[in-house]
Design brief:
- By secondary structure, the chain is of the alpha+beta class.
- The chain folds into 4 domains: about 55 residues, 2-Layer Sandwich (Uridine Diphospho-n-acetylenolpyruvylglucosamine Reductase, domain 2), CATH 3.30.43; about 220 residues, Enolase-like, domain 1, CATH 3.30.390; about 100 residues, Beta-grasp domain (Ubiquitin-like (UB roll)), CATH 3.10.20.30; about 60 residues, [2Fe-2S]-binding domain (DNA polymerase, domain 1, Orthogonal Bundle), CATH 1.10.150.
- It is built from 18 helices and 19 strands.
- The chain is globular and about 65 Å long.
């Protein structure tokens, strides 16, 4: 899949490496799209430059002029965990909540979502109504591009091969501004948008003084519904003006028919979503279903140790030795795969840890879920060299997750494993390791999770035996102090 895998330590070094290896190099942070493209032969890359370890002083920050800045490696979960983003950029927080599942959001980055440039990508639409600007950098210098000018077509941008997106900035929403994001997909999680929309309104009392409406998955690029926006300005947000604006938004769309929807259905849903968004903003109910305690499956802050701080992270190339820890045990694996491999394959083929399963190899089923430096991830989407200097926990060592002391592979069952046995939550068993890993992370992150949090924690895990009722029953039983009658 690649020949060279480089791990720069600074942004300056990254820019220099990109210039030296362009146009045959790609930056990788999350890799949730790129690894699939490489594995399927849809993209040819000689050099991968891993920026996931670049120092993040703050993934989300507010400057003196009231502008929010998103760091180059800020993940979707970084934004969900940011009170600033939730309070002052709510449509973007909503969009991040609807991207993939917790394991995807722990790896996938906002910058990657923008650069991938699919018109169905969730984060582009809210950033469009937030009037975001992008800073691109190369050895030739910096340039600032408005997000609206960044896209030239489906999966096409103005980004040059030697350029890197280093900053995303936009004005934080003011007290007289309200916004929201809505998405229609074929299922609630792990699904690409059929249609999405984002709206930001600036109010003067009950009157709209500025409106921004963006539509996703209905044109080759994200489009602003300018006629619909203009129709709202100067008027109260009443039923009549909402209905008229929604119809004008429908006319702004020029969707296509594909495997997810017909063009006619998409057009109808544009009207429905814009109407629903405007009614929510009129009623002040856009945050009604929002939870201030999202499930991140991120227990990095309570992990007993971090191998990353103990092992010097070097660029991994064929012939190098990868040094990392799995379940508290050090591993030294010779990386001899010139075409590259995933972390999943490294663990199964080189470490002999076959508990982690490969179900789909594209981040859809969650069977390969494990903890990478304390964060639940889909290991089929992580390049093997990312293991260098990392601390990994697999199903073989899950019994130590949440226990005092280092995570070790000592054969101790996790309470969730015991509950799965007791409540018959294991059917064919293939998906079970992924469910256990997600659930174990949840119980560390939220000791007494709600029913919604339990369901969200396994939204990235599929059971093809349809054993969800037993799985949920076992997860409830594993919560300390909760008794469940089988």
């Amino acid at each position: 899949m690649w020949s060279d895998y480089l791990t720069p330590k600074t942004l300056d070094e990254t820019i220099e490496l990109l210039a030296a290896h362009a146009p045959h190099a790609r930056l990788i942070a999350g890799g949730t799209d790129l690894v699939i493209e490489l594995d399927r032969g849809l993209r040819t890359v000689q050099t991968l430059i891993d920026i996931s370890r670049l120092p993040k002083l703050s993934p989300v920050s507010l400057d003196a002029e009231g502008r929010i800045h998103l760091g180059v490696a800020a993940t979707h979960n970084d934004l969900l965990a940011s009170a600033l983003c939730v309070e002052r950029a709510f449509p973007l927080a909503q969009a991040c909540r609807r991207i993939g599942a917790p394991q995807i959001r722990n790896r996938g980055t906002i910058a990657g979502n923008l650069v991938t440039a699919s018109p169905a990508n969730d984060s582009i639409t809210p950033l469009m109504v937030l009037d975001a600007v992008l800073t691109l950098r190369s050895v030739r210098g910096k340039r600032v591009v408005k997000l609206v000018d960044f896209y030239t077509g489906v999966r096409r941008t103005v980004l040059q091969p030697d350029e890197m997106l280093v900053d995303i900035a936009f004005k934080a929403l003011q007290p007289n501004q309200r916004g929201c994001y809505l998405k229609l997909a074929l299922r609630r999680a792990q699904a690409i948008s059929v249609v999405n929309c984002a709206v930001v309104l600036t109010m003067e009392g009950a009157r709209v003084v500025e409106a921004r409406i963006a539509l996703g998955a209905v044109t080759p690029t994200i489009v602003r519904a300018s006629a619909a926006e203009a129709s709202l300005v100067g008027h109260a947000l009443d039923a009549g003006h909402i209905s008229h604006a929604a119809e004008l938004a429908r006319q702004a769309a020029s969707p296509i028919s594909d495997v997810r929807s017909t063009a006619e259905y998409r057009a109808e849903m544009v009207q429905a979503l814009v109407s629903r968004a405007l009614h929510q903003l009129a009623d002040g109910t856009e945050r009604a279903e929002w939870s201030d305690e999202p499930v991140l499956l991120d227990v990095s802050s309570v992990m007993a140790s971090s191998a990353q701080t103990q092992t010097e992270v070097q660029s991994a190339q064929p012939g190098n030795t990868l040094d990392f820890q799995v379940n508290g045990r050090p591993y030294h694996i010779q990386e001899n795969s010139p075409g590259g491999k995933t972390l999943l394959r490294l663990l199964r083929e080189d470490c002999g840890l076959i508990g982690t399963k490969e179900g789909c190899a594209e981040g859809e089923c969650g069977a390969c879920t494990l903890l990478l430096d304390g964060k639940a991830v889909m290991s089929c989407l992580v390049p093997a060299p990312r293991a260098q200097g990392a601390e990994i926990v697999t199903i073989e060592g899950v019994g130590g997750v949440g226990r005092v002391g280092s995570v070790v592979q000592d054969g101790t069952l996790h309470p969730l494993q015991t509950a799965f046995i007791q409540y018959g939550a294991v059917q064919c068993g293939y998906c079970t390791p992924g469910f256990i890993m997600s659930g174990a992370a949840l119980l560390v992150e939220h000791a007494h999770p709600t029913e919604d949090q339990i369901k969200e924690s396994i939204s990235g895990n599929l059971c093809r035996c349809t054993g969800y009722y037993k799985i949920l029953e076992a997860m409830r039983a594993a919560v300390p102090g909760v008794a469940v009658v089988a």
